[in-house]
Amino acid sequence: MYQLCPEEPRDWHEVEALMDLCFAPGRTALSSYRLRDGVPPVGELCLCLRNGEGTLTAAIRYWPVRVGGRPVLLLGPVAVHPTAQGEGLGALLMRESLDRAIGMGWARVMLVGDAPYYSRFGFARLDDVEMPPPTNPDRVLGLELQAGAWLGVTGEVCRETSPETLAGLAEINNDPHMHAECVEIEAPLKGIHG
Ligand SMILES: CC(C)(COP(=O)(O)OP(=O)(O)OC[C@H]1O[C@@H](n2cnc3c(N)ncnc32)[C@H](O)[C@@H]1OP(=O)(O)O)[C@@H](O)C(=O)NCCC(=O)NCCS
Known about the structure:
GNAT_dom, single chain, 10-stranded mixed beta sheet, globular, alpha+beta, binds coenzyme A, GNAT family N-acetyltransferase
């Protein structure tokens, strides 16, 4: 049995340690991190999965960005502890967070990652969306959460700078009363296919 909770401010360093364990050194030098600098995450979609002993086993985070002036979710990073990889927990976090994003009314999501993994969730290359260099264009992937939501949305990926949006995110992130409840989750039956 796992517990799935929104990430709280007290989880920050533990999630960072998990990301450091799972990714190559220097991950924060990647251009995608420059889009996150000084921008609050979309806290309602940042999720922590803990095992029965309370150990952080997997986590996913999202930030807001803009493409062609339109709001876009930037998915990532997502990581599963090396001892639990391949058990379907990554897929569980992807599906759960994307469902919540749809429920919140987000129209489109993008990420920078391995197409062979993310294509199973429906992500496909975004030909006309440019991440800050150096980013391999084959790793710039998108998914529509509403039909047609990526049509005509092109150009450079930019940091979210709208003061209203930033203030709204910070307010929600800092108010525990506005966060979703934790839920108990059964261990997935290996993988993503069920
Ligand atoms: C990538 C990651 C989040 C996937 O989570 P997970 O719980 O291990 O994966 P799942 O159990 O949901 O899915 C396992 C499947 O994904 C495949 N897979 C995992 N990582 C993959 C990758 N980078 N590219 C292609 N396929 C991948 C596995 O081979 C397995 O395939 P199968 O179902 O055909 O056997 C996790 O392995 C991880 O944290 N990796 C290190 C960090 C990382 O590389 N993150 C981002 C990748 S761009």
